[in-house]
Design brief:
The complex is a heterodimer of chains A (219) and B (225).
Chain A (H helix, E strand, L loop, with lengths): L4 E5 L4 H12 L5 E4 L7 H6 L8 E4 L2 E4 L1 H11 L11 H27 L2 H22 L12 H7 L5 H8 L3 H4 L1 H11 L2 H6 L3 H15 L3
Parallel strand pairs in A: 1-2
Antiparallel strand pairs in A: 1-3, 3-4
Helix pairs in contact in A: 1-3, 1-6, 4-5, 4-6, 7-11
Chain B lengths: L7 E5 L4 H12 L5 E4 L7 H6 L8 E4 L2 E4 L1 H11 L10 H27 L2 H22 L12 H20 L10 H11 L2 H6 L3 H19 L1
Parallel strand pairs in B: 1-2
Antiparallel strand pairs in B: 1-3, 3-4
Helix pairs in contact in B: 1-3, 1-6, 4-5, 4-6, 5-7, 6-7, 6-9
The chains are: A alpha+beta (219), B alpha+beta (225).
Keywords (chain B): Cytoplasm, Detoxification, Transferase
Enzyme class (chain B): transferase
Catalytic activity (chain B): RX + glutathione = an S-substituted glutathione + a halide anion + H(+)
């Protein structure tokens, strides 16, 4: 078809993982380009001048920024036989609501868990568990968030799974004890080739976090 | 096609840009709806039941089923009633529109709130930061009547927040956050918006709105003392 697809990404980013999973799910060949966020490349600065952040999806030279926007773009451009979003407008809206929820409410607390100490860290842990429980309640007894098919909300959340080990160690808690259904869901997702290919091993993330803290200047 | 009574109800707040943008969308589509003014300080059982996660307005109730988050609501309206499309059809153009909508809500709005909520040096810093963000919006308007191109679109509806909220705070705050010399395109765009009947109809009346902003600013100041 002559499509050129480039992904500017950073291997531990749970946001970049969304776009990786989405591209893999649609079997799109893409050129993965690892970015150094501490020494941003000209292409990153050119393609995302507003935020200068990864991931950036470049399709035939045109950039798409923001991971969930990329996931929708991928779904709309390469619909295939596995749409990420349901066709019913109400169900689509529910999926987008939960994607937005994950962006607004789940990421923030994780930064406090691995990046902060004492009361701040505790508050982050408490908040994180509360948000996961809301998601678990939304999942219920379904196979995936959308029902029987892997889709948008699953893609939005699964990247956090490889961070669970390091979060549990830092926050001194067990996610499985708090949200067993969510862990079961994550394990189901990990069985998918697209997910297994796109997520780094948990222990890689766990080893990486102390290095990251040094790099950004936190003790 | 079976006849169905479409019941559309909006739980909103008259001075909220997020609520008004939903009203703009519904009005653009010519959809009759029931508006239910909500008291944010004293949230109704219906609001809490309809949006248990965030407990915020706006919430759209379509035949009793709730949809929350204004950007999600706008897309829902466009998906459900497909005439007078708000979002572009092309996936790339759609992605760009979604990007700018988020930029308005997550960057401009958050920074601009500090202009109203802070004083002295902190306010000055907020004004600077807001202007830096608006410069990006200014660039987008060059050669275009609207952010959506020739006609009003998704980003324009979302960015009414800039035109009729941020710019209105100037009078109350006494700072020209968006001077016309610095932002001629934005000022031109606001004039274009005011020429659109639906916009005129759906934005809060200026006098009452300024009083409201003034009162809010005073109460924010009191809180920070």
């Amino acid at each position: 078809m002559g499509d050129e697809v480039i992904l500017l990404d950073y291997w531990p980013s749970m946001f970049g993982m969304r776009t990786r999973v989405a591209l893999e799910e649609k079997n799109i060949k893409f050129d993965y380009r690892e970015q150094d966020l501490f020494n941003k490349s000209p292409i990153l600065l050119e393609m995302n001048p507003v935020h200068k952040k990864i991931p950036v999806l470049i399709h035939n030279g045109k950039p798409v920024c923001e991971s969930l926007i990329q996931v929708e773009y991928i779904d709309e451009t390469w619909p295939g036989d596995n749409p990420f979003l349901p066709s019913d407008p109400y169900q689509r809206a529910q999926a987008k609501f939960w994607g937005d929820f994950i962006d607004k409410k789940v990421y923030g607390p994780t930064r406090l868990i691995w990046g902060a100490k004492g009361e701040e860290q505790e508050a982050g842990t408490k908040e994180f568990i509360e948000m996961l429980k809301m998601l678990e309640s939304e999942l219920g007894d379904k196979t995936y968030f959308g029902g029987e098919t892997f889709g948008y909300v699953d893609i939005a959340l699964i990247g956090f799974y490889c961070w669970f080990d390091v979060l549990e160690k830092c926050g001194n808690f067990s996610i499985e004890a708090e949200c067993p259904k969510l862990i079961a869901w994550a394990k189901r997702c990990m069985k998918r080739e697209s997910v297994a290919k796109s997520l780094p091993d948990s222990d890689k993330i766990t080893k990486f976090v102390p290095e990251l803290k040094k790099k950004i200047g936190i003790e | 096609m079976a006849e169905r009574s479409e019941e559309v109800k909006l739980l909103g707040m008259w001075a909220s840009p997020f609520s008004r943008r939903v009203e703009i969308a519904l009005t653009l589509k010519g959809l009759p709806y029931e508006f239910s003014e909500q008291d944010i300080a004293n949230k109704s059982p219906l609001l809490l039941q309809s949006n248990p996660v965030h407990k915020m307005i706006p919430v759209l109730l379509h035949n009793g089923k709730p949809i929350s988050e204004s950007l999600v609501i706008l897309e829902y309206i466009d998906d459900t009633w497909q005439h007078n499309q708000i979002l572009p059809q092309d996936p790339y153009d759609k992605a760009i529109a979604r990007f700018w909508a988020r930029f308005v809500d997550e960057q401009i709005y958050v920074t601009a709130m500090k202009v109203v909520g802070k004083v002295g040096e902190e306010r000055d810093a907020a004004v600077e930061a807001t202007r830096d963000l608006l410069k990006l919006m200014e660039k987008e308007l060059v050669g275009k009547d609207f952010l959506g191109g020739e006609s009003l679109g998704f980003v324009d509806i979302v960015a009414t927040l800039v035109a009729f909220w941020l710019m209105r705070t100037e009078e109350v705050v006494g700072v020209k956050v968006v001077p016309v010399e610095m932002f001629p395109e934005i000022h031109r765009w606001v004039k274009n918006l005011l020429d659109v009947d639906v916009i005129k109809k759906c934005i809060p009346p200026e006098g009452e709105h300024l009083n409201y902003i003034r009162a809010r600013m005073d109460s924010l100041k009191l809180k920070s003392v």
